[in-house]
Amino acid sequence: MMIDPSGSAAPKAPEETVGLSQGRLILKRFLGNRLAVVSLVLYVAVLLFSISAIGLGPIPGWWHRNYSSTSTLVDGGASTLSLIPQWLGGEGIRLGEHPFGQSRIGVDYFAMTMRGIQNSVVVMIVIGGLGTIVGTVIGAIAGYFRGWVDAVLMRVTDVFIVIPALVIGAVVGRSAGGLGVWVLSVTLAFFSWMTIARLVRAEFLSLREREFVEAARVAGASDARIIFKHILPNAVGVVIVSATLLAASAILLETALSYLGYGIRPPEVSLGRLISDNQSAFATRPWLFWYPATFIVLLALLVNFVGDGLRDAFDPRQKRFSVRRTKERDS
């Protein structure tokens, strides 16, 4: 234990963290969270697999079918994927001609699902990124200037918050859904910034009273420089964690809109649209439902786990309790 100038005992910093910068300390904490690291790796792996399978833009994929061309139904469109080896009594590990089966009109469902994953990731990245930027700017301005600026911006935020996101999304999706995934994502992002704005505002209200902000004012720094060069770097933890949680909710919002018919529309494909188009076949051809539903749940969970890991890394006070670590420290 160490004694601070006031005479009270202060806990000694762990030896493994001495001499590390703040960035390396955050990285060390994040890498120490196995669930978050595995989730990040799996998320990147799913995205890269979908891109490598059917390609992206001019980049071709290794899968020989695409998500728009039809072919003759084989075995009623049943899935040909087999994951059980023959020595365990299965049919062996193979993909077959249509691993995820075929749609009612003969389109390869594997290619459609891979395209749906790509569009869902675009929605997550655009809404999470753009919504975070808008929310951060509004929250920073409101928290720094306070007064009538804060009152006006927060009342506008409150107006958007009280309107259900699904209602806003349905109105936006009805007009922008047929224009493509990028237009829909950008439009929805401008209605997804409210929570981040309130969190950033609360952080700025606290940080603007610190000594380093006063020192910057005395040194003649402009308000813009104080906001973006001095205060915002100290609030980046709240911003990053909020961005990951917004990205996780974005895929669920797009899924709900596509399921209701207000999201991404043909000829484009989304995971929610696949479920909506094949909900009547749940009892007879369940693979048309389970494959896109599995990837929706998987992507949302992976992003949430990454967000939890980032929250623990940026805020050590959120660190989970470990009985083993406590016993080792006491001994």
Description:
- The protein is mostly helical and 331 residues long.
- The chain has one domain: MetI-like (MetI-like fold, Orthogonal Bundle).
- Helix content is 62%, strand content 1%.
- The protein contains 13 helices and 2 strands; from the N terminus they run ββααααααααααααα.
- α3 packs antiparallel against α4 (147-162) and α3 packs parallel to α12 (287-314).
C-alpha geometry:
elongated
Structural class: mainly alpha
Largest sheet: 2 strands, antiparallel
Question: How many separate helices?
Answer: 13
Q: Work out the number of β strands.
A: 2
**What's the N-to-C terminus distance?**
15 Å
> What fraction, in percent, of the residue positions are helical?
55-70%
CATH homologous superfamily - what is it? MetI-like
Task: Please compute the radius of gyration using only Cα atoms.
Answer: 25 Å
CATH class: Mainly Alpha
The CATH architecture classification is Orthogonal Bundle
- Uncertain residue segments: 1-11
Averaged pLDDT: 80
Q: Return the domain count.
A: 1
CATH fold type? MetI-like fold
How are the strands of the biggest sheet laid out side by side?
1-2
